[in-house]
Amino acid sequence: MSAADRPDRPGAFREGAGSRGHDEDDVAPRGARDVANTPGAGGGHAAGGWTPADPGPLGLAAFATTTFMLSCANAGVLGQGAMMPNTLPVVLSLAFAFGGLAQLLAGMWEFRTGNTFGAVAFTSFGAFWLSFFALGQFGYLKELTMQGKTVEGHAIGLYLIAWGIFTAYMFIASLRTTGAIALVFLLLAATFFVLGFGNYGGNMDMVKIGGYLGIATAIAAWYGSFAGVANSTFGRIVAPVIALKRD
């Protein structure tokens, strides 16, 4: 799937963003017509019918903001860990509303646009944040803690490592999107693995390093979101995202 080569549609999350794609009235193979072909900064009515706006910037913003808050806690920037009583309500609220629901909606809208990569990524990470919310809100983490620090560390560590595996193969797929998105997935995979092994082994220094990696991931994702919004609104390249696929 390719994005149109017009300067008003340089979305950061498009597969092959910046390369030449299908015309608006074409029906792409595998249903891969890109939302980037929609005229106007906010989506609207194309010649062939209504097409939604690009949901990518919303998904990236939701992911970046929630990741930033949790990562600051993991890095000790907030003065305490992510699961401490004074931090947990703030992180969980953001995880449910923005990182979870908003990102899940972005994933559903990506299905509508035919962007398989965006749909899988946003839906999956929206579900990740909802699962994180459930762990903290419904007392599951407390139950793990009651079984001992080792059991808790192993459970959380495996949970994060599993997400690292998913993120790693999504990174490979991201090499056909843009440099901005590939950087997000590279940093995120590193974050999950470092946090995962840190928790599994009870190594708080590794958890702090994972927190700083998460902050870097959030900054990269915010840039991708900014690029998608700014480039679409201004109708030209304001923030380059570096297309990795050329037809």
Walkthrough of the structure:
The structure is a single chain. It contains 7 helices and 2 strands; from the N terminus they run ββααααααα. It has 247 residues and is mostly helical. It has a domain at 56-227. Strands 1-2 form a two-stranded antiparallel ribbon. Strand 1 (44-46) and strand 2 form a beta hairpin. Helix 1 (56-75) packs antiparallel against helix 2 and helix 1 (56-75) runs parallel beside helix 3. It is elongated, with a radius of gyration of 19 Å. The N and C termini lie close together (10 Å).
Shape: elongated
What portion of the residues fall into strands of 2 or more residues? under 5%
Mean pLDDT across every amino acid position: 82
What share of residues is helical? 55-70%
Termini Cα gap: 10 Å
Q: Return Rg in Å.
A: 19 Å
Number of strands: 2
Question: What structural class do you assign from the helix and strand content?
Answer: mainly alpha
List the total number of helices.
7
Give the SSE order as H and E letters: EEHHHHHHH
Low-confidence region ranges: 1-10, 18-47
The largest sheet is:
2 strands, antiparallel
In spatial order, strands of the major sheet run 1-2
Kindly summarize this structure in a few lines.
The chain is mainly α. The chain has helices at residues 56-75, 88-113, 116-137, 140-146, 149-174, 179-201, 204-234; strands spanning 44-46, 49-51. Helices cover 63% and strands 2% of the residues.
